[in-house]
Amino acid sequence: MESLIFVWSVAIVLGFITWRRSTFRFREATLGYAWQQAFVVLPRMPIALVAAGFITELLPQETISGMIGADSGWTGVLIATALGAIIPSGPIISFPIAIALYDLGAGLPQLVAFLTAWSVFAVHRLLMWEVPLMGWGFCWRRLASSLPLPFIAAGLAALVAAVR
Amino acid sequence: MASPEPTHFVRRRLFDTSFVLFLALAAGSGAAVWWLKGEEVFWRSLEGDATLFARILPQMIGGLLVGGFVQVLVPRDLVSRWLGRESGFRGIAIATLAGAITPGGPIISFPLVVALGAAGADIGALVAYVTAWSAIGLNRIIIWELPFMGSEFALWRFLVSLPLPVVAALIVRRLPVFDFATAPGAGRRRAGGE
Questions:
Q1: Using CB atoms, which residue from B73, B172, B185 is nearest to A145?
Q2: Is the model's pTM score more than 0.95?
Q3: Is A33 on the interface with B (CB under 8 A)?
Q4: Out of A69, A157, B32, B91, which residue is the most buried by the measure of CB atoms under 10 Å away?
């Protein structure tokens, strides 16, 4: 509920500023950028949620929570990292999966590792954008320097989970 | 440097291959749940999805609007001016900030990285920029993470991920030197197209 109020407050303030600057820009932001993205995302999102929900029912919950649950430690972080790194898709798929993993009992550090690995490794983005534009020379250096990142984020998240 | 053309309106049809794939996956897994777990579990799962969707949708629409407004309010060449000038640790810090606030998808950020690399920007700063944009990008947090994961999770994940761009930048500076002139996009960029 707080995040709903927060997001809409920001939207209203930014919308007001944009409107004051130029009504053309306002139309570009709403009917252009926002609508373009909504057009792609909104019809797919409920279907992805439904699919993720069904798959959650089909997976053996105890096995999964044993693998990436809060007590699974660094092994669980490693599994979650590998899982996040191989998801060849954008947020429409990965966030329903994150919710499914949460429902299946994933721990906080493991969930953080999953999302971090998906964000920084992003196979689809790498193949569609990064390799064609930057070449392998840049890509392998960036990937190599990003290898420790899911583990660092998960370690810090574990500290947070322990303190709270 | 001329600001990039606004080519980031991705023209996609409503019902393309990915949509059909999603639908097939949902139908297939739904049928399997009905068959293996029974009717009751099937309807309970759908009910849970409906609740989730009703919670996510209004936040996501707000997030999409924020993303749209940021895109017209942040000047296109602001980020490149920031990134091109600085080097050293200050450069990494500025790149991290710039990556976090860059709106939109890879169609905006990667051509920028190519252009800056070809113009001689430090690889540490560029890796920090890409890492910040992907791991702590505010655009994605507002549109996706807040509605899906809730504000508490989103806030903690953001905070524990703050050091990541700096770590990646410091590591990449120790790797063998990379010549940006060999990047495939560098030549095309200078030729004036994407």
A1: B172
A2: no
A3: yes
A4: A157
Interface test with A, best of B113, B129, B151, B160 (most A CBs within 10 A): B160
CB distance A28 to B23 below 8 Å: no
Helix axes A108-121, B164-172, angle to 10 degrees: 50
| Cβ–Cβ contact A44 with B under 8 A | yes
pLDDT tens sequence for chain B (194 residues): 333 434 444 455 666 777 888 899 999 999 999 999 999 999 999 999 999 899 899 999 999 999 889 888 877 677 777 776 666 788 899 889 989 988 777 777 787 888 778 777 888 999 999 999 999 999 899 999 999 999 999 999 999 999 999 999 999 999 887 777 667 766 544 444 33
Token pair for residue A143?
Answer: 């990937």
Q: Cβ separation of B68 and A30 shorter than 8 Å?
A: yes
Cβ proximity of B92 and B125 under 8 Å: yes
Phi-psi region of A73 (alpha: psi -120 to 50; beta: other; left: phi over 0): left
What ipTM is given for this predicted complex?
0.88
